[in-house]
TrEMBL record:
It comes from the Bacteria. Keywords: Thiamine biosynthesis. It comes from Pseudotamlana carrageenivorans. This is Thiamine phosphate synthase. Pathway: Cofactor biosynthesis; thiamine diphosphate biosynthesis. One of its GO terms (cellular component) is cytoplasm.
């Protein structure tokens, strides 16, 4: 699986490129825009063709799942720590039927010991980040953890096979797409490589 994380700040023609990514096969688009308000999130989602809403996972304003037919919600590390001990209370006002729940981790041990059954887990940094200079990769080996783990950090077409060898079921990519010369072509290259290896 390939998860594409939204660029933190809007870039020119972003929505147009996003539609091209969906058309090229993108199934997991993580909408993470820390500086946007709820209304700005709504405006952003309204610009995306409704037929692709079920491929969008929101990091903020989880209540958006009640207003849009989204794929799911994602817990960043601190929010997971703050709320997941009382999931019944957190989810009681959210329409989560058929939605995915995922979460971010930065330590494999914490991920392995987390009792909550997320649909998938983002673990970073596996390799040195492209979008965050100085964020050094730690080459986590997760072959011993029986959970769906998506590796993030420094994802490129060149190191895709190394993620698989380290036990990751997929990759999460941000800088490798949005900081490339041609984001849509970069995604297509990753997509073809993943599928040529028999992965989804």
């Amino acid at each position: 699986m390939i998860v594409v994380i939204a660029p933190e700040n809007d870039i020119p023609n972003e929505i147009e490129m996003l539609h091209q990514l969906f058309q090229a096969g993108l199934q997991y688009y993580h909408l993470r825009k820390p500086s946007k308000t709820y209304e700005q999130y709504v405006n952003y989602l309204n610009q995306i063709d409704k037929k692709y809403h079920n491929r969008v996972v929101v990091h903020h304003f989880h209540e958006l799942v009640n207003a849009f037919e989204l794929k799911g919600i994602h817990f960043q590390e601190q929010k997971r720590r703050d709320h997941i001990d009382n999931p019944g209370q957190y989810f009681k006002n959210l329409n989560m039927f058929g939605k995915t729940i995922s979460a971010s981790f930065h330590e494999p041990e914490e991920l392995e010991n987390c009792y909550f059954e997320f649909d998938y887990h983002l673990l970073s940094p596996v390799f040195s980040s492209i979008s965050k200079p100085g964020y050094e990769g730690r080459k986590f080996d997760v072959n011993h953890i029986d959970k769906t783990i998506v590796g993030m950090g420094g994802v490129t077409a060149k190191n895709l096979s190394e993620f698989e060898q380290l036990g990751f079921k997929g990759v999460g990519v941000l800088g490798g797409i949005w900081q490339s010369e041609n984001p849509v072509e970069s995604f297509k290259n990753l997509y073809q490589l993943k599928h040529s290896n028999g992965n989804q």
